[in-house]
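Shipment paperwork, digital attachment
Item: protein structure file
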Amino acid sequence: MTPQQKQAYQDFAKEKLGFEFGDIELLITALTHRSYVNEHKKSVNEHNERLEFLGDAVLELVATDFLYNNYSEPEGILTSWRSALVRTESIGAAGELLGYKPLVRMSRGEKNGSERAHQQILANAFEAVIGAIYLDKGYDQAQKFIADNILLKLDQILEEDSWRDPKSHLQEIVQREDGVTPNYRVISEEGPDHDKTFTLGVYVGDKLISKGNGPSKQAAQQEAATKAIVIYKKR
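Attachment content:
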């Protein structure tokens, strides 16, 4: 990597994170996907999975500490709130907003991958960046990074009730309002076995309320339920 390329990572750190890395190689590694190493074995020998492992632990600790010290709800609810904060979609979206996607080093094949695969790579990189910050700047700086990019989403999560399991939440709503239990039916399956997309509908009686898509039937059900909840709340 040229000095100019390394400077691009340092510029990102200064502009988006608010500080320079003492060891910029930590940030570069945090944004290096395993597939890139496989394609450049002679020049690169480290990817971000170890930093991701570390960052995941720091993220969970910071989120847990924040919730424990600011809310008095029981363990089960706090666990659900934490899960909503640190789920792949949430941290992937945070990575998208930070704008480091152009700096993520991945193979040509991964660059041409699905949007779902890219979101997972961005989420993993976000956790790896946390690990890099923790090693380079310490816990307090990592905590600030998580607070600025993840913890601030809690109010929206609570307002939207998105921390609740959507299928269970929808069942409560439908049973209360219509006196029946919603059911899910497969509408279509598309794509090869290794990258299949399912479309499922949630029905109340024989009436289709909403549809959901996902890489698994469970994921499609969750999306369909989430959309149905919005529909019911607008009634």
